[in-house]
Amino acid sequence: MLYKIRSTRGRFGISVLLSMSLLAACGSNQTDMSGSKANPTVAAKNPEAAVSAERVFTDELGHEVILPKPPVRVFAPYMEDALLSLGVKPVAQWSNGNQGHRYLQNELQDIPKLDFSGGLPSSEVLLSYNPDLIILHTANYADNGVYENYSKIAPTYVFSNAAGDVEKSLEILGELLGKTDEAKQALDNYRRKVEDAKAAIEKNAADKKVAIIRFANRGVSLMGGNYFCGYVINRHLGIDMTKLTENENSLNFSLEILPELDADYIFVINAYGQGTERMKEMTESSIWKSVPAVQRGHVYEVNDEYWLGSGLIAYEKVVEDVVRVLSP
């Protein structure tokens, strides 16, 4: 039996999934999400100076980034979650086609969308938004002359992989935007929520293992504990992942491997609704129905909007879902 975790006015309920027509697999091709912690140099030229003074930073690719004044018009595609955690709205938001981060659209509904499905926007398009700071969340975004072109428009800071360590990335973002107090408060709130969650699930999570199966248009994979929702469950909540992903960020998954799945709880993601057929094929098979977690009813459909999100807002929602499932 497959259960679905739903969000209603910020709360989460679990109801029996009656149809396999829902759930979606992530069509976007995620770059390296190894979760390895980078050690960026975020060094203000004069740490004692007021935030309004010129500040100089070194980004994670070694570029010098000079901020002559506090940024106001920020463009940070795929980091909208982090910006909102700091109380900042970007001049434009990342989207895949016309679909932005759906779980953030209440806050971003008036922010123009820029389609990244065919690549990054041109310099001419970006210039029309008149940013005074550009932040690229992954080194891949800076390739093919993009950094050189964007840095002519505004100071441009590049993360090696901002999704690898969301907490560290938020601290850096707070430094760049002069929002260090806001970053500290957001992190403190999140960490308290994690500690409360660990206490709530301690009894049911002890010695248990979790598997996260992502159904996508390009195939089916098991997510490891080094990025996105896996990072939250494994690194923050301290729950072990299936042994199949102990040394993997992501593992191609199939019916042939399914009998080896040793998870006590299975979370299923159908990112962007593109994995419905693959999910139906697997979950209607006799092999699937013989898996112990399936027989115990410990399979849950989760919301791809934030389970594949990168930021504290998404992470908090994942924590809430896990508590809903694992608390007594």
Detail the topology: elements first, then pairings.
Elements: E1 2-8, E2 11-16, E3 55-58, E4 64-67, E5 74-75, H1 80-85, E6 93-95, H2 105-108, E7 113-115, H3 123-127, E8 133-136, H4 146-150, E9 156-158, H5 166-177, H6 180-205, E10 209-216, E11 219-223, H7 228-236, E12 240-241, E13 250-252, E14 265-270, H8 276-283, H9 286-289, H10 292-295, E15 299-301, H11 304-307, H12 312-326
Parallel strand pairs: 1-15, 5-8, 6-7, 8-9, 10-12, 10-14, 14-15
Antiparallel strand pairs: 1-2, 3-4, 10-11, 11-13
Strand content: 15-25%
Low-confidence stretches: 7-50
CA radius of gyration is: 20 Å
- Proportion in helices: 25-40%
Largest sheet: 8 strands, mixed
Distance between the termini: 20 Å
Number of helices: 12
Domain count: 2
Number of strands: 15
Could you name the CATH topology of the largest domain?
Rossmann fold
3D shape: globular
If classified by CATH, what would the architecture of the largest domain be?
3-Layer(aba) Sandwich
- The CATH homologous superfamily of the largest domain corresponds to Nitrogenase molybdenum iron protein domain
Under CATH at level 1, the class of the largest domain stands as Alpha Beta
Q: Could you give the order of the helices and strands?
A: EEEEEHEHEHEHEHHEEHEEEHHHEHH
Decide which structural class fits the backbone.
alpha/beta
Report the average pLDDT across residues: 87
Keywords: Coiled coil, Signal, Transport
Organism: Paenibacillus residui
Family: Belongs to the bacterial solute-binding protein 8 family.
Pfam family, one: Peripla_BP_2
